[in-house]
Amino acid sequence: MIQQNPACPSPQWLSRDQLIDAPEPVVLEWLFHEDSLTRRLTRLSHDGFSVTPLFEGWQRLRADECAALHLPEGSEGWVREVYLLGHGEKWVFARSVAGRAALAHDGLHMDELGTRSLGELLFSDRAFARGPLQICQYPAPWLPDADVEPGLWGRRSCFSRGPLSILVAEVFLPTVWRAIAHVTDANKERS
Known about the structure:
- Helices cover 28% and strands 30% of the residues.
- The protein is an alpha+beta fold and 191 residues long.
- β2 and β3 form a beta hairpin.
């Protein structure tokens, strides 16, 4: 479980049209790509994709999460933190949260996912509608200790089905950008 640092201010989550200093084009394209990140990482890794759970359980949600889910500040919710891996290498840190009451009434069992990708579940259920993508430079104190690094790009979006909303945040680790650059370079050499 990531320790919450109350001294760490919430980042400003921005939509694409709110960006002033946009990241480089390849980063921007990955951050705002609408398709399933799980599917993209599976293709990037040539089916070497896997999920490693870090924490799953009830926890007080952060202020930015409560605001995004339209919950009172300090609300409790289900928190799932995982690594998305390519060939066993950590590529993305993901944190998904849902409010307790909405989750209890929906019947979705986030606690039973294990090493399955939540993203794959959300994209395969047509009842879920995805809200707009927002990005930020993710606060380093909110990352797992092994990956604390300032300036990492993260994105989030809210998936809704009836009264249930699940906020999914994905932080791109330096290793995924190296893998993307490697594939891009290999494709250039072939053409």
